[in-house]
Specification:
six-stranded mixed sheet; 174 residues; DNA-binding; 25% strand
Length: 174
DNA sequence: GCCAACGTTGGC
DNA sequence: GCCAACGTTGGC
């Protein structure tokens, strides 16, 4: 008998000059494939752990005010990142190929803006959020797990009620 | 633009 | 398989 896996939560980090939350929102269907990740830990999370319907906090890094700027949903299981064997791609990896993929990605779908955004300083000031991985000095993971407590706290910080939470739960049923 | 922190690479 | 050197990330 198949058991539905509990919904999980993630934080995905991007430099907005490279790919921003607005870019995600403007993509066809609000969906993109999260290609180009070349880090084994992040690869393992996308390949093995992330599931459709999981919640995603979208974080803008390497800017004056780093912040979680929106919510997204994982929209696929992990699958091979074909840009790895495209010599024209800036993420080309000559060791990878269609019959031996090394790198994996998931699809990500726009869910909602977080307004106001939850800044790095906001996170640091919140007792439930100050230990988040994204705040750790030297952290370089572009995909990292978030607890349900942290997810709820971020939403509460931004909007002060649970309307976005209800919206994101509704997205689970697609 | 600086520098600390980290993952990856490559020599041995 | 160790570890120093290197390249990259990212906050400041």
């Amino acid at each position: 008998m198949e058991k539905k896996q509990k919904r999980r939560y993630w934080l995905m980090k991007s430099e907005p000059s490279c790919f921003s939350f607005e870019d995600l929102k403007a993509s066809p269907g609000g969906v993109v494939h999260w290609d180009g990740v070349r880090n084994y830990q992040a690869r393992n999370l996308m390949r093995d752990e992330m599931k459709p319907g999981d919640g995603v906090l979208f974080y803008h890094s390497s800017i004056k005010t780093p912040a979680i700027v929106g919510l997204a949903t994982v929209a696929s299981l992990g699958y091979p990142d074909h840009t790895a064997w495209d010599p024209a791609s800036e993420h080309y990896d000559p060791k990878a190929g269609p019959d031996h993929p090394i790198w994996f990605m998931v699809d990500v779908r726009y869910l909602a803006d977080l307004s106001p955004p939850v800044t790095r300083d906001d996170l640091r000031a919140h007792p439930d959020l100050e230990s988040m991985g994204v705040l750790k000095k030297g952290n370089r993971l572009s995909v990292m797990p978030v607890t349900e407590l942290e997810w709820r706290a971020v939403l509460a910080l931004s909007i002060g009620d649970d309307s976005l939470e209800k919206q994101s739960e509704g997205d689970d049923n697609q």
